[in-house]
Amino acid sequence: MGMEKVEPMIGALLRYGWQRVMKTILSELPQEGFTDLQQAHVIVFLYPGPEGLSPGALAERHGMSKQAMNQLLHSLEQLGYLTRGVDPHNRRARIIQLTERGERVVAVARRKLVLLEQEWAAQLGEERFAALKQMLQELRRLPERL
């Protein structure tokens, strides 16, 4: 018995978009002098960014263990993209601050993603692309149910 061809579900379609976003960013970074970043590093910089968060809060946002996130942050700190300083509101806690180099990564990624969005809007039509973004915003605001 052969397998029926089925249409991809929403998760697969969203993954396609995510993969295009990551491929777009990762293809540009080396051209801008950021040859030391891997895909795992890039997630730290993505919207809304790590600025002012604790490593634990950032780990939770990305569904990672604190240990894995701290390893990633240590690597980025060694490469000069961020610092982990003392939280002025809680001297025992650490907060993440991007360095100028880290802020440049964000600027490069944002510039490339603006171009990608323009490409998608041209392919889908401005109105349809705007509607897609609006619907995704609505989904983002729905409460999570596990």
TrEMBL record:
GO terms for MF:
DNA binding; DNA-binding transcription factor activity
From which domain of life does this come?
Bacteria
Under InterPro entries, the record lists: HTH_MarR-typ, MarR/SlyA-like, Tscrpt_reg_MarR-type_CS, WH-like_DNA-bd_sf, WH_DNA-bd_sf
User: Keyword set for this entry?
Assistant: DNA-binding, Transcription, Transcription regulation
Q: Name one Pfam family in it.
A: MarR_2
HTH marR-type domain span: 1-141
Which GO biological process entries does UniProt record here? Answer: response to stress
- PANTHER family, sorted: HTH-TYPE TRANSCRIPTIONAL REPRESSOR YETL, TRANSCRIPTIONAL REGULATOR, MARR FAMILY
Q: What is this protein called?
A: MarR family transcriptional regulator
